[in-house]
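Hi P.,

Sorry for the delay on this. The queue was packed all week, but I finally got your sequence through. Input first:
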Amino acid sequence: MASEVKLPRLGQGMEAGTITKWLKAEGDTVAKGEPLFEIDTDKVTQEVESDFAGVLLKIALAEGEAPVGQTIAYIGQAGEEVQAESPVEGSQDRGMPASAEKPAEAPKREPEREQGRDAAAQLAASVESTHASGSAPSIDNSGNGGRIKASPLARRIARERGIELASLHGTGPDGRIVAEDVDRGAVSEPGEQAPPSHAPSGEVESVPLTKIRKTIARRLTAAWQAPVFQLTVSADMTRANDLIARVRELSPDVRVTVTDLLAKVCAQALMRHRDVNVQYTEDALLKFPTANVGIAVAAPQGLVVPVVRSVERLSLAELAAARGDVVGRARESKLTAQDLEDGTFTISNLGMFGIEQFVAVINPPQAAILAVGATLDTPVARDGAVEIRPMLTMTLTVDHRAVDGAAGADFLRTVKQFVEEPALAL
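Then the structure:
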């Protein structure tokens, strides 16, 4: 009997998801654990692996939104018939009764191409582009079996803007097309012109809100409803910069950054000030035994905050490797829902943009976020003389419902001490 493939729950609070692409066509053989389709939740876009082995007999929902637990496909033995009791909500059978449904034909394979997943994936990508632009399918002749390597986000943006993936040059790993490539409209052949990704001059462009953008708007609105206060300090980065330079020499394979050092000292400070390492709920404060530090990342799909867990237990090199991994996956739209959960504190660093000081919005249900500016050479009075020192400005935003002013100030004082004397935190 055929097994039902149901829309999975990929994280706490997930109630629905949007299928953006099937990686297998009807009639294809599927191995257990093999990527089956791509799903867009309100947090991330990711590939979902098959829980079953067999043949993909029927796709009940080609694309679109469905609630968690809804049957979206059937996997069984070759030739096995699928008896659906009722039409699947949200499917594209236009309301056809289940008894009248005919199994969809598998996409035709081109005899010149390698049989299997690569051909199916390439054809699906061409159909997507055709549906969006109304033009004839474009076949990729890259020599990799017709497979166009592209991130789920890049495929969605290209589909929305009517851009053919085959016309783009990928700058990601192994030539993978990423969102930035679609935005740039990069072309694979010199002299080609990519379809415009913006409205003509003088016209207003309407950009539909993505699920992630809607989530950002909802969470920031909730954050602004919280009674918050801000605290600001400046720290001398002389010893911190020296330490970062030494760690880079000892661990040349991992690039340690100021953000890594700040995450480490904040984690140690949170262990000393447990009342700040909390999440606020209507009924209780959840006090955590470990510091799970979120790093705000400006990813192509919007602001995301992947979490590095138990930062207080990691060395600077280990922390830098973990941070590099989640930030890299964030920018490639490869985060999982688990990467975004259980954060207890967030760091937002805009120093690389030359921003000297700013106020960050808390990341509910967390109680605090640290905004970090650029390190600037600044005249500082020391022992009756004026010296030039590398100074860093940090602003802590705190949810007053969870943390009192004195507790927040004491925490930030410890962070400043650790930044200026990082050996105390290592």
